[in-house]
Amino acid sequence: MIGGNLxxxxxxxxxxxxxxxxxxxFALKHSSHGKYSLPPLGVGLAIYLPSxxxxxxxxxxxxxxxxxxxxxxxxxxxxxxxxGVLVMSGFIVGESLFNVALAGLIVLSGQxxxxxIANGMSEGQSMTIALIAGTAIVWGLYRWSARNGQAVxx
Length: 154
Hints:
It contains 5 helices and no strands. By secondary structure, the protein is mainly alpha-helical. The chain folds into 2 domains: about 1-50; about 50-154, no CATH class. It is flat. It starts with 7 loop residues before the first helix and ends with a helix. The model has no long low-confidence stretch (mean pLDDT about 85).
């Protein structure tokens, strides 16, 4: 758009897909009496944003849903759900603040990766370790939320 070469045909296709998604959502909600839906905005964002951005959101949503289902029947389940949402919201805010600070550090240092640690591992090995560490942290925080939900209830 800024360069003056916006492909209007693609914009039209997107509008038609969006309209179709709204109609599908309406039909799905109506036929299931409000039980199921297909949020057009979520689908649109999934089409627009790269999978590296969408995948963690989907994994987080599924993990949160599983946690809610796991604690829902336990004593303090409702409190545990609220604590879990607060903790994971803090994760999101913390990640955003870290990225702002990292951007400032990149500008100040003039280096593209000022916090990179040189090691002999491949990218795959480093990502595997990061995935394991992240999973362990999230699992631990959800367990902490479940325990504290019971404590709040008592």
